[in-house]
Amino acid sequence: MIVLNVLLLGGTGVISRQIVSQLLLAGHEVVIFNRGSRKLPFAGDVEWITGDKSDAQRFEASMSKRTFDVVIDMISFNEADARSTVNTFNHRAGQLIMCSSIAAYKRPYKTNPIKEDAEELFDNPEFAYAYEKAEMERYLQRIAGEQQLPITIIRPSLTYGIGGSNLGVLRQNYNIVQRIRQGKPLVMFGDGTTPWAFTFAPDLAKAFVGAVGNTRTYNKAYHATHESVHIWNDLYVEFGSIIGIEPQIVHIPSELLAKANPGLFAHLVFEKSYSGLFDNSLIKSDIPGFEATISLNEGLRMMLDWYESEANTVDADKDLLEDRLTELYFEWSRQMEAFQV
After folding, report:
1. DSSP secondary structure string, 145-179?
2. Tally of structural domains, the chain
3. CA-CA to 205 of 20 to 30 Å: which in 22, 55, 183, 324?
4. Please, what sign has the CA dihedral across residues 59, 102, 161, 71?
5. The domain containing residue 313 runs over which residues?
6. Got the DSSP string for 194-243?
7. Where are the transmembrane segments (predicted)?
8. 341 domain residue, yes or no
9. Whole-angstrom Cα distance, residue 300 to residue 120?
10. Is 339 a domain residue?
11. Rounded distance, CA 307 to CA 320, Å?
12. pTM for this structure?
């Protein structure tokens, strides 16, 4: 086995903590760079470097005497971020692996399941997150082959995992469990039948670790997702099945939810309202053995165990918002019934 010296920019997020664990399991030497706000216990020795990547000049200076076999960047969200990483490591690393997002794909898709080579990049600045990720990729694609540094791009889909705060339509997390147990309704966007493949962080980490030092992945872009077919309703139905209580689900159009709270719900209109099924043939061909194997049931049990042991705090503001939205839903229902003749 070849032992590589890997720098991870980030290292404590939902996905990156799993990458660190799997790198250590594979026997690699791991260095983590972040702001040092929290240090997680890992089952192996990790070198920590504290700093702020947003200060590009100081960041580059801090790395001026370091070299790495591979750099994995989990904290670049736009072209400027990526440019800083490339400028810093162009002659100091053997490979750069960049975390993008399936949000960078333009909607509507041209393929279903989605294939990387058939799709275009997002071009609507109205949804800033997707647009900036796409701009980052355009920059990386422009410089591919011009730099000494080979670049691999990996695009996660919506990914759940321990430490995450993104589960549920309102990103309610533990609130979902609490509301089901209390018999309170949960809000689902649209009619809840949009197809989706739910992915969990330990599976996604396999893609990043499999790309480390893998020359097949140089100057290529991949998505890496589970391939099981579900619909969005299944997220709450499966939680209810695990808890043993059938959830009450109400359905509200994405456009109305976005009007109620654009910051919380805009992604439903621009991204989640489209099918989330992906063809992973490309990454499987270049990273032999890659496959997402954690089922929705297994993944939600993992999340429930974490909620019960550590993260069992109700978000009162989101709970109130969900109460208000469901009250509006039932009021609309009563008004619509009044139209019956």
Report:
1. TTSSS-EEEEEE-SEE-TT----STT--THHHHHH
2. 1
3. 55
4. negative
5. 5-333
6. -EE--EEHHHHHHHHHHHTT-GGGTTEEEEE-----EETHHHHHHHHHHH
7. none
8. no
9. 32
10. no
11. 20
12. 0.95
